[in-house]
Structure to design on (257 residues):
């Protein structure tokens, strides 16, 4: 915001305005003066909304945290916005839900999506690709998108890559925070062998600074090609261990001697 300042020669006398002192409300703490039982009810409602939002994301394929929370709040009849959980709470509930109800399905889904991401990253290696989002975190649900970050000062070269291969894509612009500054970046969205793929094109220098997750104040986790290959090796080892444990004969099983 810019303030106009009169020159000294024609400065107007300052007006004395009496203002009332308002209480400072810290974000995320809620009203500390509310009764203890009310705060407890709000916390319980936050947990319930987080659980329902996690189920919506896991079973209905909803990726938008805000949308999932609004749907969950409506289902539970929550009226106060103070009861809405943050994305971290919903993500924790989502991991718990997937581990409890979708363990085998989730394990296979993440492996498939990470392999697809690796294929795309290898094809786009010229533009310094990084994997981010739910596929990296391991929380990707049904219909999830593979999110990649590219770093280049020649964004048109990325578009030419797909144009030359007759790959249809859509272009969007989005405001994101990088290094404490808000910047407008280009998003390319397309299907990569039947899987939704989103490419966020950042300036080359942004590769060295911390980026924020879209619509969030949290730092964006990301993994380069070497890290994704390492993740896939770990996934394969965990899958073999899981299959061995599920197929191993139980000591108390009368059918195995």
């Amino acid at each position: 915001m810019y303030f106009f300042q009169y020159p000294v020669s024609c400065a107007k006398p300052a007006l004395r305005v009496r203002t009332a002192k308002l209480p400072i409300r810290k974000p995320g703490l809620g009203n500390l003066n509310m009764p203890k039982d009310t705060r407890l009810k709000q916390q319980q409602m936050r947990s319930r909304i987080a659980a329902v939002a996690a189920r919506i994301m896991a079973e209905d394929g909803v990726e938008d945290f805000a949308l999932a929370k609004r749907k969950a709040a409506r289902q539970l009849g929550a009226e106060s916005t103070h009861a809405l959980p943050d994305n971290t709470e919903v993500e924790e509930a989502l991991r718990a839900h997937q581990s409890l109800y979708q363990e085998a399905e989730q394990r296979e889904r993440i492996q498939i999506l990470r392999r697809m991401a690796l294929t795309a990253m290898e094809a786009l290696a010229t533009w310094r690709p990084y994997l981010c989002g739910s596929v990296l975190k391991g929380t990707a649900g049904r219909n999830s998108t593979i999110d990649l970050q590219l770093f280049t000062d020649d964004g048109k070269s990325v578009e030419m890559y797909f144009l030359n291969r007759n790959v249809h894509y859509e272009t969007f612009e989005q405001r994101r925070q990088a290094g404490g500054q808000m910047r407008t970046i280009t998003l390319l969205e397309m299907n990569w062998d039947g899987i939704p793929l989103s490419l966020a094109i950042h300036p080359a220098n942004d590769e060295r600074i911390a980026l924020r997750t879209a619509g969030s104040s949290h730092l964006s986790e990301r993994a380069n090609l070497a890290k994704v290959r390492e993740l896939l090796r770990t996934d394969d080892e965990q899958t073999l261990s899981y299959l061995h444990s599920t197929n191993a004969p139980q000591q108390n099983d009368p059918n195995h001697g």
Q: What stands out?
A: The chain has a mean pLDDT of 81.
